[in-house]
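TEACHING EXERCISE
Course module: macromolecular assemblies
Task: Read the component lines below, then compare them to the predicted structure of the full complex.
Student: A.B.
Group: 4
Components provided:
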Amino acid sequence: MGDKRLHKIPDHGSVKWDVRNSNKFRGDVKETGIGFMGYDFDSATEQFKVYLHYDQLYYWKYAEVSKLGKGFIDGEFWGTQCPKCGDKFFPPRVNCWNLDDDLAVTDWIKLKQEGVVHTFTIAGWSGKSSLKRLPFVLAYVVVDGCNTAIANELRGLAPWDAEFGMPVKVVWKPPDERQGTVTDWWFEPADGWKPGPMNEEKERMKQLCAPVYEWVKSMK
Amino acid sequence: MSRKVCIAGGAATPFDYPMHITPEAMAANCIVETQKEIPDFTLRDIEFMVYSHFSVHFGKQLCPEWIVHDHLGLVGVPHVRIENGGNTGGSALYAAFLAVKSGLFDVVGVYGWETMDNVTQSQGSEFIALASDTRYEALAGGIYPIYYAAMAYKFMKEHGLKEEDFALAAMKNRNYAADNEKAQWYRNDYTNPDSPYYKKALTVEDIMKSRLISYPLKRFDCCLMSRGGAFALVTTEEWAKKHAPNTYVVIDGAGLSSCTIRAGDRLDFPGWNERYGKGYPDMTEFAACRRSGEMAYDMAGIEYKNAAKEIDVAEIHDAFSSSEVQIYKALHWCGKDDMKDFIREKQTFLDGEVPTNVGGGLMGYGHPVGATGIMSALECMMHLNDTAPKKHLSSKTYVKDADTGLVNSHAGTGTSISNFILRRP
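Instructor-supplied answer key:
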């Protein structure tokens, strides 16, 4: 055997995928590749343009972080910890980030599904696929005392009620809807947490959110 | 390594969304414009081309620099493309700097561009978010303004700032862009009778009233998505002296540094803990900006505490009004205690200590990623060689008697940042 820090690569052809769900969430999305959909011409300026559509199915291999994806399906949080310095990571790092630990391979540890909000924002605009859930709170949360914070949505409160340092818990999608990604879960305020009273800043946030609610309602 | 590296000249296209010109035609235009200032410069002078282009997603074309390169007739001339997020332009300049500094080449062309108007703005935001860690961040609905807002909000709280403090930068840069006919703000709003901002000088209230992007950032706190190109000619001092004796500037300092891809990984990173103290930069400071700024200051012989005094003009990466403010601190222009005064006394306005983004910046001029850092260098340069009055619409946005300039280019959530010190020879 070589160096213990080397990550194991399964033998060629040994990954058989005995649990297959490859099209479970596909709906009517087809992989069409490249295609030209139409064109425009402006006679006055002699400008021409074509409409190109392209889509592509990717096969993201979690490989040595597979425990994370399978954990999400099972409703578990798996992080890692360096056996040398003790630093804890979520999202997991499979080698320690400390240069003196010389790529020490970290150990997988099951994390408590609780954390503290390090910082947050109220999103009133986002990428195409997220527009309909605006406005939402995106929070960076330190989970179970890790040395890192992870970003995810904070639900279960009025957006303007979120607070720095507030305790949060993890809430999961129903098992059958989980995809093995961070969208399988979100944060909510820990049981027993109560928002502080309204104040000038919260009123300002509420006011900024009002047109966002209206706009989303008007979206097809 | 006593060889001095210079920017002999260069030019940028207008930036706009949409704009009807191909990347290769933008390159040709920039080179033709450069020749107006350096009449005996021809494509035959170029020994090495560094292309600066961020995302092949926007054109659905891998290796798009190959199209530009052979279009320019440069077959046989070595070329590389640099891709480094929002710091692509700065990184390409850095590469050209290294190429000349090393002694391997005397004349290096740097051409950068982006064609973000090939997609809708929301799709564009999602493309750019693919430069965040897609596994953990983009999927959660995060796009860059949201990550920046989360960092800006904590910074704002910890420094006792208000939304209005950020809004000053947003107002400043757009209003300066109204004096720059290549600027997207000028083309799209200031001279557009259909825009509510036609011929209007923006106020802080206008910024505050613009719609929510991600608290505390509103629409006018964010930069623009653009098509545009920019070209710079990086040469030895000998070449510059001979061919552009009255207009070249010297790159006296250059720094490049890096930070984590995920902003949440900066609370306790060993590399920063040991350099700047435990817990730095957290999610509030741009450590890679501080580090690369310090590298550039060291090279140029600028003491950090004197930076604001020594720098006469700066073009910095105002992708967000909040990041402009965060950069003031990272570059040692102000500290935690005097930050509020520094901002409210308008020290980065034309009459202040460090006039910043007088060309319009990313919020006013635009941000076609691969072109941006190069545009910033050219905008900074035009004060050091006194060409600003003829390149801008008036001398209102000309910083007179400037000898030292700073150029900053910034990527990711502060993941890669470069800084340059330019000097009048």
